[in-house]
Specification:
Length: about 750
């Protein structure tokens, strides 16, 4: 039986038309030959013909095209033998393995996962076009890392069963470092100062950490915008970046960056006008404008002015207010006048508040934080505050608030609150170290959002050589609808002073308390608490006579009914590296009758940050504490204040300032003052990165006996330098201080440090 090749007819038909057209025939059977991995049924599913169809040249061409389009086959041939269609196939090889040799900069699994996204992975059909794409992608990744000399060579090796092995041989080479950055055209400001504004830099002693000496197109774009803002905020209205050139040395190790700028002239604001149809009075609008006539032009102030007017109108329901500042430039006199055209638009109200994305957190938990009301006028400040309050809950990865217009209306919008949940249960284990308490181990199981109710539950363990604490806490932040919280704690605490420079004693406490928080406004809350504490006190023959006398008079076991009140206000601009703002904390503790011990203990702290310049910040901190017994009772000595150490007066060993016993051990006191003055700046070489800051400080402090007066001669002073580092393993704090007026019985300690939090 003679087979005839349909492919010949198909080719002839496509080239010279119907002269050699295939004589149609009815397909009585279809056979597939040459396949190894692909099932015959899979081939049939892709073919546009089946048994019983009439085969002609058009269907033959369509069949070949369809089978090639699958990507499974390297060759497709059609034959027929007495009305039997024979499909001859040659499969593409499958990828049997992928090997990455010489890979160090990236994890191998990460690269293989990237390959998988483009269709190149073990088990898939091999396609050389994808191999070339993968090779180029690897090179691009190395270029983004600054390794311009990296090379990638691929080798394809046949394996048995029609498979191939792909090998990527990578020579990563060294990082290309920025050798030089030049700013051409800078005359008003020193080039050195301008370079200091930029993130990119030439290598320095911290480059191993910052990687800022490695070129990045994104970082350069950010630096150019920083330069532009710097000039525009200082009056240079016509400043422009003319061009940038990035050149690499022939050995691909050094990069040279040249930035060409035109500074232009400095402009003064000559006049400020307000136009349009504002709903606010001109006097009120002018109060919102930060620019002033006669002052140097600042783009930052111009933008802030437009935003302030828009936000103010937004607070009154004008959601779509448009504020446009139009300049009038006088180049000869170097003056610029601005007219603020204000168009409030139509006043709108909120039709409906929609909450989506909360798969676990109850709707009511979200809605009680929303300050905008349904049916009320649109208020931008309330919407912003709602977003901030939801963010502060800590339940969500992301909070988005949108206010789309309601279709078919001109005065209604909806408020759509979209949240993305995140896990709110944590099992944490940590460690810290300080020069005062040694190793501090901590562990906790915490659920911030119990069953989506917004309630807080925590079990915590914190241990060090001085303190060991085990506690269980629960808080309902909305015990009442107006935001009064209610919570409670159970705890056991052990303190061993024998391992410190404090006079020898130890306590074991078991206690419980209930507490409530009453919001005063959106940011301030006052807290009240009432607790019962059972304390077992142990003294030793080496303990001070004062301690022994206390035990003889009151015994060694005490039941204390404790009342607490506290207040805090925090307006810092950053949690990591604040540069402005204030922190105020006030707290009071009182031992109430009929408890065994009656006393009071008051604390107040006022901390303020002042921006001295773009790079330097002044921190002033003041703390005062007063405590004493009530009635005829003395202050329990284990309630005394202490000072000295890395968190109070540096340069003196922790807790050693103030009165001492006959052996020279500190016994603390009932009155405490700590004063700190510190100038902070980013570590040189880090640019704008404030995760590491250095400081120069002056500390002062004293401890006085309960009921005693503060005496100037009893204050201790120190000065020194410090380092704060928000490291990946937790906050680090180092200081080296020199006591200024130490007395012979003071315990000095120059170098002090703390890793992590000490509880």
């Amino acid at each position: 039986m003679k087979r005839q090749l349909l492919l010949l007819f198909v080719l002839c038909y496509s080239c010279i038309g119907q002269a050699f057209a295939l004589e149609p025939f009815t397909i009585k059977d279809i056979r597939v030959e040459g396949i190894q991995r692909t099932e015959a049924g899979t081939v049939f599913s892709y073919m546009p013909v089946k048994v019983g169809d009439t085969m002609d040249d058009e269907k033959a061409a369509a069949t070949i095209k369809a089978l090639f389009a699958t990507g499974f086959f390297k060759d497709v041939r059609l034959e027929y033998d007495k009305d039997v269609l024979i499909v001859q196939l040659q499969e593409r090889p499958a990828i049997g393995q992928i090997d990455l040799i010489g890979l160090k900069e990236f994890p191998a699994e990460q690269i293989k996962e990237a390959f998988k996204q483009i269709g190149l992975s073990e088990g898939r059909i091999f396609d050389r076009a994808l191999l070339d794409k993968a090779e180029q992608e690897m090179k691009r990744q190395y270029l983004s890392k600054g390794k311009y000399a990296a090379s990638v060579k691929t080798t394809v090796t046949p394996l048995e069963r029609n498979r191939v092995a792909i090998r990527f041989d990578v020579e990563e080479g060294a990082f290309a470092k920025i050798k030089q950055i030049n700013i051409v055209g800078a005359q008003v400001f020193r080039e050195k100062d301008l370079l200091g504004l930029m993130t990119l830099s030439t290598p320095n002693w911290l480059s191993w950490y910052t990687k800022n000496d490695q070129y990045s197109k994104q970082k350069l774009s950010g630096d150019l915008e920083t330069l532009r803002s710097y000039y525009l905020n200082r009056g240079y209205l016509e400043f422009a970046v003319d061009s940038t050139q990035v050149q690499i040395s022939p050995d691909k190790r050094d990069i040279f960056i040249t930035i060409n700028i035109t500074e232009g002239k400095r402009y003064i604001v000559s006049d400020i006008k307000v136009a349009g149809d504002p709903t606010l009075s001109e006097a009120e609008l002018r109060k919102l404008i930060k620019l002033r006539s006669g002052a140097v032009f600042s783009r930052e102030q111009l933008t802030a002015s437009s935003k302030a007017i828009s936000d103010r109108l937004g607070n009154d329901g004008y959601a779509f207010a448009n504020v446009n500042a139009v300049p009038e430039v006088d180049k000869e006199k170097q003056r610029v006048a601005f007219t603020f055209f204000v168009d409030p638009g139509r006043r709108v109200y909120i039709r409906r508040i929609n909450v989506v994305g909360n798969t676990r957190t109850r709707d009511e938990v979200i809605r009680r934080e929303v300050r905008q009301s349904e049916g009320g006028w649109y208020a931008q400040d309330k919407i912003n505050r709602s977003r901030e309050r939801l963010d502060r809950l800590g339940y969500f990865k992301e909070v988005n608030v949108e206010t789309p217009a309601v279709a078919g209306t001109t005065d209604q919008v909806d408020m759509n609150v979209s949240v993305e949940e995140k896990p709110t249960g944590n099992i944490l284990a940590g460690a810290g170290f300080s020069s005062s308490e040694g190793i501090v181990l901590s562990g906790s199981v915490t659920q911030d959002n119990v069953l989506g109710s917004g309630n807080y539950l925590s079990v915590q363990v914190n241990t060090s050589k001085v303190n060991k604490t085990y506690s269980l806490s629960f808080t309902n932040p909305y015990y009442t609808d107006d935001g009064i919280s209610l919570g409670g704690d159970l705890y056991t605490r052990t303190t061993d002073a024998s391992t410190t420079s404090i006079a020898n004693y130890s306590t074991k406490s078991l206690g419980a308390d209930v507490r409530t928080g009453v919001p005063l406004n959106e940011t301030d809350t006052i807290n009240f608490g009432l607790g019962l504490d059972q304390t077992k006190l142990s003294v030793f023959p080496t303990s001070p006579q004062l301690y022994l006398d206390f035990v003889n008079q009151f015994g060694s076991s005490y039941t204390t009914l404790r009342g607490d009140v506290s207040y805090a206000r925090d307006s810092l601009d950053s949690r990591v590296a604040p540069t402005k703002g204030t922190v105020q904390r006030a707290s009071g503790e009182i031992g109430l009758p009929p408890g065994s011990l009656t006393y009071y203990k008051l604390n107040y702290q006022h901390q303020k940050y002042f921006p001295l310049s773009r790079d330097f910040t002044l921190l002033l901190n003041g703390e005062i504490g007063i405590a004493n017994g009530l009635g005829k009772d003395p202050l329990p000595f284990f309630k005394n204040f202490y000072a000295g150490g890395v968190s109070s007066v540096r340069g003196y060993k922790t807790g050693t300032l103030g009165p001492k016993d006959s052996s020279g051990n500190s016994i603390g006191g009932g009155r405490r003052v700590v004063l700190n003055s510190e100038v902070l700046t980013s570590l040189p070489g880090l640019g704008q990165d404030k995760s590491v800051r250095v400081s120069a400080f002056v500390d002062a402090g004293t401890i006085e006996p309960a009921g005693g007066a503060f005496k100037a001669n009893d204050f201790r002073y120190s000065t020194g330098v410090g380092v704060y580092w928000v490291s990946p393993v937790g906050p680090l704090r180092f200081s080296y201080a020199f006591p200024i007026n130490a007395k012979p019985d003071d315990v000095k300690e120059g170098f002090q440090f703390q890793l992590g939090g000490v509880f």
